[in-house]
Design goal:
The complex is a heterodimer of chains A (306) and B (339). Chain A has a single domain, classed as ABC transporter involved in vitamin B12 uptake, BtuC (Orthogonal Bundle), CATH 1.10.3470. Chain A is 70% helix and 1% strand. Chain A is globular and about 65 Å long. Chain B is 76% helix and 0% strand. Classes of the chains: A mainly alpha (306), B mainly alpha (339). Chains A and B meet through helix 4, helix 10, helix 12 and helix 13 of A and helix 5, helix 6, helix 11 and helix 14 of B.
């Protein structure tokens, strides 16, 4: 039944692309907003973990999963705001402060998250889009979490917003050329602070996905570096929201490879397959970056690519 | 008086760090009070848990040993203008290299095994971080992200090998490599429970200081970090210097892993990845990338880590309290740089 196993594998990867890819989507959209303004926030990893914890705690305390998602977005917003404000001070390196925020966010999440490791919080219900299909494997794969459509909506909104709105134009201007933005009396600092805060809120929702949908509980080993990989994803996506969506799905599929192979009884090299997203990120960075040349589409003020 | 001037300049260098640490401690105290814990009691306990007894001090030094070496893994590339954060993976692979030697040649005498373990650990660590430097110089891959991805890959490789082909079948609950032969275990410094890794780490910091301060390549490296265009214009081999600094830093982190295996754990297992790589970043930044200050800062950050269990036992605080303090210190260090 090799063909059947292959179908199982394919369905597992398609379902996994959405299941594993959704947090990548939110974090990379968040990083995309921040980087469009000319700043890098490596602290999204800390925000993701803090978001996951506060979503779980919020959902447990109010017995409502959606309140948990709101909590995560709020915590992400506040931590993003902190990054935005501190990096507005003179001589503060945004990459270095991102590392500090990563430490702080993870520390706070572990500190407050201790009591929530045991109890079971309500989870976000899934939308059974595949209910009409006979094959149970497809039904499982198409039981989509409600945050994924929200992510699609956000992708479309950002795609339109960056291109066709005043705010989007101001954001791109601040990120591409600070001097011009100042000359046009565009409030550079405010735009960057708001962009970082908005990016933080998105990453917080990505964290909520981890604790309320998949894997669907709070533990200290919950994140596997999605917050860091988001930075690479955004480079791969060339700072375009639609590119972020494609990259997130690709990464989801790669991340689902290990479990999907295990499902058809192939479990050798489990850790190596789990590391596939890291290898893919690195390969993409190597393929897309060029020495001594700025990347096409990169915001001009970005310290990351200069 | 040159000595007076020297002291004044050291004090001026330490001032921002001291201010930032004081601010972080104040915020931490506020955090604890809001959490319903007496801050005075907690800070007192932290001092006691870090430096209050011979046992506490030994525990602190035990943690400071790898921190000095992982801090060098940040400091050396930083001198060339790079922010490298992949020390954790280099440390794990260095430990794995040391553990593998015990599998490959368990009959070697300790006098031969120590240098071989150290060499293997430094080679793999240097290769790992050196790769991040090479990718940056020759492929334009950002070194911060590149080194972290390499670190994740290194840890995955570590887990794959330790839970697979290199696993000691007798290690049931906690996959480990075969234990090192008893004679290979590195002893403690006379009068303490801290192992020789502390002395080696301190010597490595002093050596780094000597090289950076007095050698031509050290000077050239500082020029690279200060202004790469100028360095290229005067004909310095920028690529070689940058990658060399990464290799040296990675070798230091690998050596830290070797000492963790040969002086603490006794075999390579998941306990190696206990955050020394990340805390080393904090140490290097707190020391403002100065190798001699790394020794002091590693002891202080080691002390914070050592005091965690006392806070947990006496006050019921989660052990992540020390992580919160580390994060606050790091954030304040950078924010106070603005002054």
């Amino acid at each position: 039944m090799a063909e059947d196993a292959l179908t199982t594998l394919a369905i597992g990867i398609i379902g996994g692309a959405i299941r594993v890819g959704t947090p990548y989507l939110f974090v990379s959209l968040g990083e995309c907003i921040t980087e469009k303004s000319g700043r890098v926030n490596l602290g999204l990893e800390g925000i993701l973990v803090a978001g996951a914890m506060s979503a779980y705690a919020g959902a447990y305390l109010t017995q409502s999963a959606w309140t948990g998602v709101m909590c995560a977005a709020l915590v992400g917003l506040l931590l993003g705001l902190l990054h935005g404000l501190v990096c507005s001070l003179p001589r503060v390196n945004d990459i270095a402060f991102g590392i500090a925020l990563m430490l702080l966010g993870i520390g706070l999440a572990f500190f407050f998250g201790k009591p929530y490791i045991q109890p079971q919080a309500p989870q976000l219900p899934s939308l059974p889009l595949g209910a009409w299909i006979e094959d149970a494997r497809w039904r499982t794969a198409l039981a989509i979490n409600p945050l994924f459509p929200l992510g699609l909506l956000l992708t479309g909104l950002l795609h339109w917003g960056f291109r066709s709105t005043r705010i989007g134009l101001a954001l791109r201007l601040v990120g591409d050329h600070e001097g011009t933005a100042r000359a046009l009396a565009c409030p550079v600092r405010q735009v960057r602070v708001l962009a970082t805060a908005a990016g933080g809120a998105c990453a917080g929702i990505g964290g909520a996905y981890l604790s309320l949908v998949y894997p669907g509980s709070w533990s200290e080993g919950l994140s596997s570096g999605q917050g860091i990989m988001a930075v690479a994803l955004v480079i791969f996506a060339r700072w375009r929201p639609l590119g972020c969506l494609a990259a997130a799905m690709l990464f989801g599929a790669t991340g689902a490879l290990g479990p999907a192979l295990q499902a058809i009884g192939y479990s050798a090299g489990y850790h190596l397959f789990n590391a596939a997203p890291y290898a893919l990120t690195l390969a993409i960075l190597i393929a897309s970056a060029r020495p001594h040349r700025t990347l096409a589409g990169a915001p001009g003020e970005l310290s990351l690519t200069r | 008086m040159p000595i007076l001037r020297r002291t004044a300049s050291v004090a001026a260098g330490a001032l921002p760090t001291t201010l930032a640490t004081a601010a972080a401690l104040a915020l931490f105290a506020l955090f604890l009070e809001l959490h319903g814990v007496s801050a005075a009691r907690a800070l007192g306990l932290m001092w006691q848990g870090a430096f209050g007894s011979m046992f506490a001090l030994s525990n602190t030094l035990l943690r400071a040993a790898p921190l000095m070496l992982t801090a060098l893994c940040v400091l050396l590339p930083a001198r060339a203008g790079l922010i490298v954060i992949g020390g954790e993976g280099a440390l794990a692979l260095g430990g794995l290299a040391a553990g593998s030697l015990a599998i490959a040649a368990p009959t070697l005498p300790a006098a031969l095994a120590w240098p071989l373990m150290a060499l293997a650990a430094m080679l793999i660590g240097g290769l790992w971080i050196g790769a991040a430097g090479w990718l940056r110089q020759h492929r334009g891959v950002n070194e911060t992200i590149g080194s972290l991805l390499l670190s994740y890959l290194g840890i995955a490789l570590f887990n794959q090998l330790v839970e697979g082909p290199l696993r000691d079948p007798a290690s049931l609950n906690k996959p480990s490599t075969l234990p090192l032969p008893q004679t290979w275990m590195i002893g403690t410094l006379p009068g303490t429970d801290a192992h020789w890794g502390f002395a080696v780490g301190a010597v490595a910091c002093v050596l780094t200081w000597l090289v950076l301060r007095w050698s031509t390549s050290g000077f050239a490296l500082n020029v690279c970090g200060g202004n790469p265009q100028a360095a290229r214009l005067v004909g310095l081999p920028v690529d070689r210097l940058v990658i060399g600094a990464c290799v040296a830093g990675g070798a230091a982190a690998g050596l830290a892993g070797m000492f963790e295996v040969a002086a603490v754990q006794g075999s390579a297992n998941a306990s190696l990845m206990s955050g020394y790589g990340t805390a080393g970043i904090l140490v290097a930044f707190a020391a403002r990338q100065s190798p001699l200050a790394v020794i002091v800062c590693a002891v202080l950050v080691g002390g914070i880590g050592a005091s965690g269990s006392l806070l947990q036992r006496r006050l019921g605080l989660p052990d992540a309290a020390t992580l919160v303090l580390q994060g606050l210190i790091f954030a304040n260090l950078l924010a106070w740089e603005a002054l």
